[in-house]
Design brief:
mainly beta, 8% helix
């Protein structure tokens, strides 16, 4: 599911960011230049992304890196694309306006980190060169994710960089960092979560010896799709909770993995993982909206950006509408028509133990139920 496929759907989007796997960078004056590390390899990575209903996701990345040489100091960094279509403030200190609570720990010790605003050239590997903000200013009259050089009237995209100095001892080292990020959304996408995996190729082994991906839907349910070809080396599994998955074709004919989770974790684990592409977790409404063939509720999400495209003209069935939040939690319907309807929805997973309580309903869902009485 390559990023270019969805380019036409970028209307009404809020912060589109590329979360990047930590790469190795060389600090030279005011430049951070990606380099290939020859003595430190990634022995293990556990990447956990928790999708929440409040429009945020939590990212937790745990590395075990092996230094095959003597003790050394290495700079590590990643970039986050500037948001657009949200009138976000331009943070000259280099801190992304939608990334919060960033932490980094190495071998149990909390590390400090630095930020910078860098120029982005999509035609080549990022060089992490911090911009001179006396020369480059945000081009708000064109787009807020661009900066302009007034002297030449040239423009380019910019990104926020996070980087830190890591002192590696001989042998095994552990690097752990976490942050919280406001999720992107757009037309036919209730949420989109990109994450760059390919910078892992800069380390000595040019792969991840032992890689685990966990996508969590804690105290909620999420319906999404993933690039199937990226994960061909091993099967996915539902690690806990209730979930299902299947392979389907998207509108470009590519094979994708469609996943539905409820209070569950999707897990993928492989040895000697060489990422051929970057990861995108994309809301499954992209598979269902806009083709004129879908019935009400084929995709449902508890978040604020769930939309019912084109269904107002189809005289909505209000009984279906007000029962969608209940079905999303696994309510077993006694009404034969409702039971038959929801059992046709792929994401529906009956749970006889769930009682029809509204304690965890979102404010939007409570308003929804009232609206469609």
């Amino acid at each position: 599911m390559k990023r270019k496929i969805w380019t036409a759907l970028l209307l009404c989007v809020i912060p589109a960011v590329m979360w990047s796997n930590d790469g190795v960078v060389y600090v030279n004056g005011n430049q951070l230049v990606p380099i290939n590390e020859t003595e430190i390899s990634i022995a293990k990575e556990v990447l956990t992304i928790s999708i929440r209903d409040d429009g945020y996701a939590d990212v937790d990345v745990l590395y075990e890196l092996t230094n095959h040489g003597k003790e050394k100091t290495v700079s590590m960094g990643f970039e986050a694309e500037a948001p657009y279509n949200v009138e976000a403030p331009f943070n000259k200190e280099g801190q992304h306006p939608f990334i919060h609570d960033f932490t980094v720990t190495m071998n149990g010790e909390r590390l400090s980190y630095k930020n910078a605003i860098i120029g982005v050239d999509y035609q080549k590997e990022q060089d992490f060169a911090p911009l001179d903000l006396k020369q480059w200013q945000q081009a708000t009259d064109i787009a807020e994710h661009l900066v302009r050089d007034a002297a030449t009237d040239s423009v380019m995209p910019f990104a926020y960089a996070y980087y830190f100095t890591a002192k590696f001892k001989e042998g095994r080292n552990e690097v752990h960092h976490t942050y919280r990020y406001r999720i992107s959304y757009g037309v036919w996408r209730a949420f989109e979560i990109p994450y760059w995996l390919k910078p892992a190729m800069r380390w000595a082994n040019h792969k991840i010896d032992d890689f685990t991906l966990r996508i969590k839907a804690e105290n909620t349910a999420k319906h999404f799709c993933l690039n199937d070809s990226l994960f061909a080396a091993a099967p996915f599994k539902i690690a806990d909770g209730k979930g299902k998955m299947r392979k389907v074709k998207n509108d470009s004919g590519e094979s994708v993995m469609e996943v539905a989770l409820r209070d569950a974790t999707l897990e993928w684990h492989a040895k000697d993982f060489v990422p051929s592409d970057n990861l995108t977790i994309l809301a499954a409404d992209i598979l269902y909206a806009g083709d004129g063939k879908n019935h009400l509720g084929a995709f449902y999400d508890r978040g604020e950006h769930y939309q019912l495209w084109g269904l107002e003209e189809q005289k909505l069935n209000h009984r279906i509408m007000r029962n969608l939040p209940y079905a999303h939690r696994g309510y077993v319907f006694r009404d034969k028509k409702l039971k038959a309807y929801f059992e046709k929805l792929w994401w529906y997973m009956p749970d006889p133990t769930w009682q029809a309580a509204t304690d965890d309903f979102t404010p939007r869902e409570l308003k929804w139920i009232e609206q469609y009485k």
